[in-house]
Structure formats: structure tokens, C-alpha cells
Write a structure and sequence with these properties.
The protein has seven helices and eight strands, in the order H-H-H-H-E-E-E-E-H-E-E-H-E-E-H. It has 274 residues and is an alpha+beta fold. The protein has three domains: 81 residues, no CATH class; 51 residues, SH3 type barrels, CATH 2.30.30; 82 residues, Alpha-Beta Plaits (2-Layer Sandwich). Strand 7 and strand 8 form a beta hairpin.
Length: 274
């Protein structure tokens, strides 16, 4: 009986030693995970967060921090020999149910992550979404939706899924832009002379128009009543709101001063002879 008692006591001591060792390992894993999470959060906030909108940066910072903590906790439970397979199975079933119920939410979340990583546009950019007929300034790419301030001053919220899958036209990436205008001149007027007077007027009276690249002209159509010329003027990106409204006025003034006619719609009627 005494021998059996000693054997039982010895087994208890070994189990106790193994438990203390496993707890020590688990404690190291958790402590390392907390330290790593804080370091990763600080590095993200220092080097990457300043390039993102404030709300987006905060959400990603939390995601990184708690994601590392969760991984550390899983490592801790594994070191203690705790079997989480049953909980994981139940959690997986629950996640599938929740996933079906929140498909749009998850889709918007994933699209938001892709938008943040890809960066098709950044805060303050002027963009256009041709598929939705929306133009304005990008205010924020959030966790589930993005906000655009339209040119009329209103703010529109767009789900990230629609924003990510739509065509995005950036109006501020390039340092220069091109303004366009169509003008028609009479068939009796010389095309080269019209182009010359328009070019001279643009370069001398429009301070926003660039000499290099110089204005371009294309004869687009021999219309029913006029020869239609497309005028293309390059200018600094930020002067778009000033150039576009002045371009037609400048063209009209140049043609008037040169006596070049901008014809009204005309029709030639032939009378039948008996």
C-alpha cells in the first residue's frame, strides 16, 4: 500500500511539473503576442496610417492588434492541450449561417480592404464613376462604405462593393488636363485661317492654357451647315474650373474679330421644274 501511495504521489508531481511548464510556455506565448501586437500597431500608425483616412486607419489598426491577440490565444490554448475542435465546428456552422444572412455586409467589408490596398483613389481626389453618373471629391473609404462630396455640395454614401466593381475615373492623378470644345465655321471660310486665329486668341488671352503641349485642332465633321472643328486645349489640372467656361467664349471672340461666320442650321431647297 505504501508503494502504491508513493507511485501515485510521484505521478502527481510529474503532472504538476508538466502543468507548470505548459502554463509557463502559454504565458510566454501570450506575453509575446501582446508585445508583438503593440509593436505592429505602433509601426502601422507611424508609417502607414498617415496615408489613409482617419476612420479607415483606426479600423485597420484595431484589426491588426486584435488579430494578433487572437492568434496568440489560439497558440496558448494549443500549448495547454485544450481541444477547441468542437467549438470550432460549432463556430463554423454559426459563421456559415451568419454569412448567408450578412452577405452584403461581408462583401462590402472585403471590398473596402481591397480598395485600401489597391488605392485606385485617395482622400481628396476628384473622381468620376461613369457607371453611376457620380462625380465629386472622395472624402473617405470606410470599412463598409465610401463617401463622395458631389460638385453641388451634397455628400453621397456608396457601398464599397459597388464602388470597387465600378469604373473609377480619376480627374486629379495627372498634373495636366485637356479641355475640349466643338465649333462650326461656314463652308466659305478657310479652315487653316480659323485655326490660326483661334490659336492666337487662346495663347494670348487665356493664361491657363499651356503652350506645350500646344492646342490641337481636329476637323471632326463636314456637317449639314458647317465644318465642325474640335478644339483641344491643355492646362494645369487645378485650373479646370477656370479654363472650361472661358474656352467657348474665347473661341467665339476670336472668330468674331476675324469675321469668320459661325453659321446657323441651313437647308437648301430645290424647286421642281415643270
Amino acid at each position: 500500500m505504501t508503494i502504491e501511495f508513493l507511485q501515485s504521489l510521484s505521478e502527481m508531481q510529474i503532472v504538476g511539473e508538466l502543468t507548470v511548464l505548459s502554463l509557463l510556455i502559454g504565458g510566454i506565448i501570450m506575453a509575446g503576442g501582446v508585445i508583438l501586437a503593440k509593436i505592429a500597431k505602433l509601426l502601422f500608425q507611424k508609417y502607414y496610417a498617415p496615408t489613409l483616412p482617419k476612420d479607415t486607419a483606426q479600423n485597420l489598426s484595431k484589426l491588426i492588434y486584435f488579430g494578433i491577440l487572437i492568434i496568440s490565444f489560439l497558440g496558448f490554448t494549443s500549448s495547454q492541450g485544450i481541444d477547441l475542435s468542437g467549438i470550432m465546428v460549432a463556430g463554423g456552422i454559426f459563421a456559415v449561417v451568419i454569412g448567408f444572412a450578412t452577405q452584403s455586409v461581408v462583401s462590402n467589408l472585403i471590398s473596402g480592404v481591397f480598395l485600401i490596398v489597391e488605392k485606385p483613389a485617395k482622400h481628396g481626389d476628384t473622381i468620376q464613376l461613369p457607371d453611376m453618373g457620380i462625380s465629386g471629391t472622395l472624402l473617405d473609404i470606410g470599412t463598409f462604405s465610401s463617401k463622395i462630396r458631389k460638385f453641388d455640395g451634397t455628400v453621397i454614401r456608396i457601398p464599397n462593393e459597388k464602388f470597387f466593381t465600378s469604373n473609377i475615373r480619376s480627374l486629379t492623378v495627372s498634373t495636366v488636363r485637356r479641355a475640349e470644345a466643338m465649333v462650326g465655321i461656314s463652308y466659305k471660310n478657310d479652315i487653316e485661317n480659323a485655326i490660326s486665329v483661334i490659336t492666337n486668341e487662346i495663347l494670348t488671352t487665356m493664361p491657363f492654357a499651356l503652350c506645350i503641349p500646344e492646342p490641337e485642332f481636329r476637323v471632326e465633321e463636314l456637317g449639314d451647315s458647317s465644318v465642325n472643328i474640335l478644339v483641344l486645349v491643355w492646362h494645369p489640372r487645378d485650373d479646370w474650373s477656370k479654363v472650361q467656361p472661358l474656352l467657348l467664349t474665347t473661341i467665339k471672340r476670336a472668330l468674331d474679330n476675324a469675321g469668320i461666320e459661325i453659321p446657323f442650321p441651313q437647308r437648301v431647297i430645290w424647286g421642281a421644274k415643270d
